[in-house]
Design goal:
heterodimer; A: alpha/beta; Rossmann fold; B: alpha/beta; six-stranded parallel beta sheet; four-stranded mixed beta sheet; disordered N terminus
Chain lengths: 186, 470
């Protein structure tokens, strides 16, 4: 278990994502601290029981960050950051993660929008360590296992958004999030 | 926003290309900036590919990728039927289009019926091939390319030069000038600033677009899922923000199940950019479900034949295995010197030289000379992650080409073949050549040959004896 978590952390480093390990009761505070340091003023949280369990919403309010739960009652312009505060952080709860590649597996559902991470400038993922598997093949086999309902959309996320379209030099923050921070929960 | 320039009706190639292939090649060769850009891109790609083989045994992964794709093409009709059923079960609509016109007609008709005014597009070779942007703009729709490189090209009214990295021939000053013209305002000069500027300009478009159009890297028959690979995040926005999502795929881009998909999805970025994962892979199995707050209300999958079906069972069947990674482009010494625009087709490089004339027919003036854009060195076949013997297909494509360049000189090749089929006449021609070179040579070298040999010696000398003198 911890070998996979360590491999995941190393892979995230390669992907230009940041990470930290936290205990279940410290994960909410850890996420809130990271967001406060990044200058986040509003967080859009996936409506997943884990977010409440680690106490993220309370920790965010304690540091003065505005909390919205998915689905948000905002217009498309505000969701895209064209109106309202720019420093928004999307908080996701990956269904699985791939240690070998540093990939998060995000499943769309009523509580978890397809675009939570890419519409926001920042992205924080709350990842329970027991959801980390070794390879992409294992992750996809579980996601699309026979008998399990196929999710309407699944996003494999491996690091913050980037583009190499100008002079072949990798530049972060093209369309999706400029940062990705993963709180691995022991 | 004005449209990208137009293409010949019914063809894959662009009709605004000027001059002959030879003239375009010479123009490209005289552009020192282009050569430097292409070569550094090719070198960086080759270095990263070495890393992939060292760290992941990429060369062994290719064998399995080849086997998967060969089997997919053999089972194509059944896989497409299954894909169609599953997408419909997931609440999507599937359309099989025999050709470009049929595909465009459907998409334009859908846009009209739904009152769409603006379309946000992500990069897709299939939509380039069927000239979808032209069809949409002719119908009065605004089309915005949202991939950064493609948007830059749309502003520059240029065609892409590479399957994966479309604008690699422009530097940041040129990009800044285009952005300034588009926004009529101040634009930063540095790369980070330019990317941030494009991000906000294009978000304005995402906020308005009623339809998103994407390509498809791979479709998984077992669950009716399309996989779209990207680094920027624009494809996720294209497929989640607008009310309607239309995905356009070439009919050959299907795999059976997730075991196969997992392998190809890993091989693709390794082959394309030499990295072990793309930033985003979007796996879409239909429109939003009940209770979901984002994602399109409608999902349409357009599967285009466009001449592909006829290649099954032909000597070119292996070309259908292609996963459009662009590795053969980077590996090709021709492409690395002249770039993609010289080819005049959305598909450039070795794979483009093979498939463009196959999709257009052997007599098409726009593409019949393309199979000759190769030294047949075999670097493309070595680079291909799905083991397409591109050098063999290039030779077969030459034989099939109805180009005046080959048909006019046909008698000469027939005579040559006649002479070299017998030992005696073969030896006689060799002796004749040796004598001729000795007579013509000065100081061990022939500087100029007469007749058809003149073009060859215009840039090189030929030794008059072997081994040559230094």
């Amino acid at each position: 278990m911890s070998a996979l978590a360590d491999q995941m952390a190393a892979s995230l480093g390669r992907r230009k994502a940041t990470w930290e390990m936290a205990d279940p009761d410290g994960a909410g505070r850890a996420g809130a601290r990271w967001m406060a340091d990044a200058g986040v003023v509003r967080a859009v949280l996936a409506d997943d029981p884990l977010v409440e369990r680690v106490g993220l919403a309370a920790a965010l309010r304690a540091v003065g960050i505005d909390v919205l739960w998915w689905p948000v009652a905002l217009g498309r312009r505000e969701i895209l950051g064209l109106e309202g505060p720019g420093d928004v952080c999307g908080v996701t709860v990956p269904a699985l993660a791939v240690a070998e590649r540093g990939t998060l597996v995000l499943e769309a559902s009523p509580g978890h929008g397809r675009g939570i991470d890419v519409t926001s400038r920042h992205h924080v993922a709350l990842l329970p360590a027991d959801r980390i598997v070794g390879t992409l093949g294992e992750a996809l086999a579980r996601t699309y296992a026979a008998g399990r309902p196929t999710p309407s959309a699944v996003s494999l996320v491996s690091g913050p958004s980037r583009s190499s379209d100008i002079e072949k030099i990798s530049t972060l923050g093209a369309h999706g999030s400029l940062t990705e921070h993963v709180v691995i929960i022991r | 926003m004005s449209s990208r320039r137009r293409r010949a009706p019914g063809g894959v190639t662009y009709d605004d290309v000027t001059g002959t292939l030879r003239e375009r090649t010479l123009t490209a060769l005289r552009d020192p900036g282009l050569a430097a850009n292409l070569r550094s891109a090719g070198t960086a790609w080759a270095e990263q590919r070495e890393v992939m083989d060292r760290d992941y045994g990429f060369n062994e992964m290719r064998d399995r990728a080849r086997d998967i794709r060969r089997a997919n093409i053999r089972a194509l009709p059944a896989l497409l039927t299954q894909l169609q059923h599953r997408v419909r079960e997931n609440g999507g609509t599937v359309v099989r289009a025999a050709d470009a016109a049929e595909a465009c007609r459907y998409i334009v008709g859908l846009a009209r019926a739904r009152g769409v005014g603006m379309v946000a597009k992500s990069k897709s070779m299939a939509t380039e091939e069927i000239k979808l942007n032209d069809a949409l703009e002719d119908a009065g729709l605004e089309v915005v390319e949202t991939d950064l490189g493609e948007w830059i090209l749309q502003l520059a009214h240029e065609h892409p030069t590479h399957i994966i990295a479309p604008a690699i021939h422009l530097n940041k000053e040129e990009v800044a000038a285009l952005f300034r013209a588009e926004s009529n305002g101040d634009v930063p000069d540095d790369r980070e600033g330019l990317v941030a500027h494009a991000r906000m300009r294009l978000r304005e478009k995402f906020a308005q677009a009623e339809m998103g159009i994407s390509g498809v890297n791979l479709a998984v028959a077992a669950t009716g899922t399309v996989c779209i690979v990207e680094n920027e995040g624009n494809i996720r926005l294209v497929t989640s923000q607008p009310r309607i999502h239309v995905a356009v795929m070439g009919m050959e881009r299907v795999v059976a199940d997730w075991d196969e998909a997992a392998h190809i999805l890993q091989v693709l970025p390794m082959a394309a950019i030499g990295y072990d994962a793309a930033n985003y892979v979007n796996l879409i199995s239909g429109p939003r479900r009940e209770g979901e707050a984002d994602g399109p209300e409608e999902f349409h999958l357009v599967i285009v034949d466009g001449g592909r079906g006829a290649l099954r069972g032909s000597e070119f069947e292996e070309a259908l295995s292609c996963i459009r990674c662009g590795a053969c482009l980077y590996s090709c010494p021709m492409w690395r010197n002249v770039g993609g625009q010289t080819y005049g087709s959305p598909y450039s490089g070795p794979i483009g030289a093979v498939i463009t004339p196959l999709l257009e027919g052997p007599s098409s003036p726009g593409s019949r000379d393309l199979p000759f854009m190769s030294s047949v060195c075999g670097a493309c076949g070595d680079a291909c992650p799905v083991g397409i013997p591109l050098q063999d297909l290039l030779v077969k494509a030459r034989a099939r080409s109805r180009s005046p360049a080959t048909t006019k000189a046909g008698w000469a090749f027939r005579l040559w073949s006649l002479l070299w089929r017998r030992g005696l006449t073969y030896r006689l021609t060799i002796v004749g050549w040796r004598l001729g070179l000795r007579i013509r040579g000065r100081g061990g070298w022939v500087h100029r040959l007469p007749g058809p040999g003149r073009a060859w010696t215009s840039v090189r000398d030929l030794p008059s004896r072997w081994p040559p003198r230094r």
